[in-house]
Task: inverse folding
């Protein structure tokens, strides 16, 4: 009987620790899903100007490090999985600074036919002031992308 009590306490403690860890890192599978190298095509906010480039998402703690390479312009930012709308849809929200302006991008998280991440969303000036949001579509690049070294 003494061993039963000890085993029960150990199992209870272990399951509590697993539950607590799952609660802290509940979005980690989604973070892992979107990590990687992407080709991006898009349009700037309040503009008809189109662009293409490369983006890397890399897990760093409980957020993503983001490196954007558009033309020869390289910027870094951070991304987090957040919820949007009353339905609490999970989205990837990215913050970055480019050419002395603070931007925010909100991406819907989907997948391609090979079950790799595909991101589509809006880009806008942080804090408002955007009349027509920019658009972006990101497509996974299996081999990595030139200009953003693999680590």
Result:
């Amino acid at each position: 009987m003494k061993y039963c009590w000890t085993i029960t306490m150990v199992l209870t403690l272990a399951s509590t620790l697993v539950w607590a860890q799952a609660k802290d890192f509940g979005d980690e599978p989604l973070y892992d899903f979107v990590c990687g190298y992407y080709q991006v095509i898009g349009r700037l906010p309040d503009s008809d100007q189109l662009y293409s480039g490369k983006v890397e998402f890399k897990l760093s703690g409980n957020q993503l490090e983001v490196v954007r390479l558009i033309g020869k312009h390289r910027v870094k930012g951070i991304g987090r999985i957040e919820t949007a709308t009353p339905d609490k849809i999970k989205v990837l929200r990215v913050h970055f600074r480019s050419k002395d302006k603070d931007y925010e991008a909100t991406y819907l998280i989907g997948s391609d036919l090979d079950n790799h991440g595909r991101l589509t969303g809006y880009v806008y000036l942080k804090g408002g002031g955007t009349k027509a949001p920019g658009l972006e579509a990101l497509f996974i690049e299996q081999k990595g992308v030139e200009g953003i070294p693999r680590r």
About this structure: The chain has one domain: 28-140. The CA atoms of residues 35 and 57 lie 5 Å apart.
